[in-house]
Amino acid sequence: GLEYSEVRDEADGRWFRYFKAIPTQHICLQCHGQSYQIPDNVKAMLAAEYPNDQATGYSVGSIRGAVSIRHKLE
Fold it and tell me: Is the pTM of this model over 0.85?
């Protein structure tokens, strides 16, 4: 699954934790896809603004990141 939650007892209390994967959508490929999918003007902007970025080469459905929430329960 792309989603998970739990309640955990830890040394500093009881915590609710939630995770949800962020799968790559078609529109994401304009910046994060294979090199041939990224328009030249976008490549130039990415190179200027994010010179060390390596977040390309993804395809639809690839996991691109995740939302993670940790909340202390009382």
Answer: no
